[in-house]
Amino acid sequence: MHSGDSPRYTFHMFPDRDAPGERLFLQLQQVLPSIVHHQLPPDCKDFSDYYLAHKTAV
Would the pTM count as exceeding 0.90? Predict the structure, then answer.
């Protein structure tokens, strides 16, 4: 990427709802400043909880 160019990709993260998950997000943010943080609902500890609660039958 040339200086002045906008990033080609936007990274999104749904960190686990615990201290290690948030620390990982902060570490990744240092090397990927455009990473987007998404907060899971309070009843979901991690993305697998969210997925299982919201998946639809195929």
Answer: no
- Cα 49 to Cα 7, 10, 14: the distances in Å are 31, 24, 12
Please tell me the predicted confidence (pLDDT) of residue 55.
87
Residue keyed to tokens 């620390």: 23
In Å, what is the CA distance from 13 to each residue of 2, 4, 5, 37, 39? 25, 25, 23, 5, 9
For 21-30, what is each residue's pLDDT tens digit?
999 999 999 9
* Dihedral angle over CA of 12, 17, 22, 25, nearest 10: -20
Pair 38, 25: CB distance under 8 Å: no
